[in-house]
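Question thread 4412

I'm putting together a teaching handout and wanted feedback from people who do this every day. The idea is simple: show students a protein as raw sequence, then show them the structure tokens that encode its fold, then repeat with a second protein so they can compare. Below is the first pair exactly as I plan to print it.
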Amino acid sequence: MQWLSQVDAEARLKVQTNPEALIRLFAISRFLKNAFYPADFELTDEWESAVVLSEEGRTIASELEREGVLDSVRLAAFTMLRMFAFRDVLIDIGCDMERIVTFLSRMLHSGGVRWPYVYGHTLYDKFQDTYQGNRTDFLEADHVRNLLSGTAQGVFQVGPLLSGPLGLLESADWRIVPPTLHLPLWHCSDPGCGSLHLVKAHQYQTPTEVGFLRACRHLEDRYGPESEWSGPSASICSERFASCPSDCVRQYRSLWKGFPPARFRRFLASPKTMWQFD
């Protein structure tokens, strides 16, 4: 398995027969990777039939099952989709994406899966009222569950997929507002620091989460770092985003009036902007 730089990965994407389908899978993987799962979360057999693995995905899934890292076909399918890529893309565009999006919406509505609503003061104020301490870099899963309880479902969008109170919808306009488990919860007492500090939300160690972490660790230990797929995937989203006629795009274009289009797209895809993917 050959490691791919961002340039190599972008070249691979450009020769894909259906890059938009691949970006939809990338969007699904970002929602899966950055969701908060309840302590009793379990996978159904439906994932096994809906997810189609690529050639590299089948090779890696077989290795992980053979070596006892993953203990079922459905867990392997879910883990490969959540990872999206290692050295190469792990998922085939032949996936039943309509069914997968339906599964995600069901998880959101009745399965207790959450994307934190990170806008406004709701989580910040609740954290200040309930947390025993003055600062932290992470929250354990029980604290995260209590913090998110009674708050709105997070509104995020990656490519065409949009999360919110109505479930996971497909938008005609593409945007890049990716879900995150880094929550803006506190300011420090240093008068010279005006930063809003982020707190990492830890997951419950469910079989699904343990399998995902073990798979990532196994592949990194055996083969080294993963290829740089996030940047090129975000770049394709940003190109589509920058061409949308939506009010959101016009607003950001007005802020950067005079930027050449290519430079505007590079800004949107830059890891230094607010659009960075986790």
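The second pair follows. I'd like the answer to focus on this one:
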Amino acid sequence: MKNKRGQDVNPLPVVVGIILLLAVAGVLILGFTKGWQVFEFWIPSNNVQTIATQCNIACVGGNQYDFCTLPRTLNDPTQKNKNGFDANGVLPVTCKDFSDTTKATALGGYKIPACPSLTC
């Protein structure tokens, strides 16, 4: 009879498991310390609805600075290097720019309503 002190263990699954654990831990640490926006480049999306909501809040609240002057950063990956967007599909403009139909059409046709109660 052989002296069996334990099972034969293949170290490969253990090493792979440790590497996966370290990768997941690294992603979690990076996400919680640097912010989850670090991973946004993997998921291209636009923020037109967010800007429309922010502009509407500024209009309803009568906040002239937020509507007329505060620059908003529009992200639209479909507009890379077009209509004033940079290579990443980013364009800094104000709510007033979006609500001006001439500029909005030139920017790509975003329909963010004007604010008649504010004069810029």
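Top answer:
Good format. For the second protein you could add a caption like this: The radius of gyration is 25 Å. Residues 11-34 form the longest helix (24 residues).
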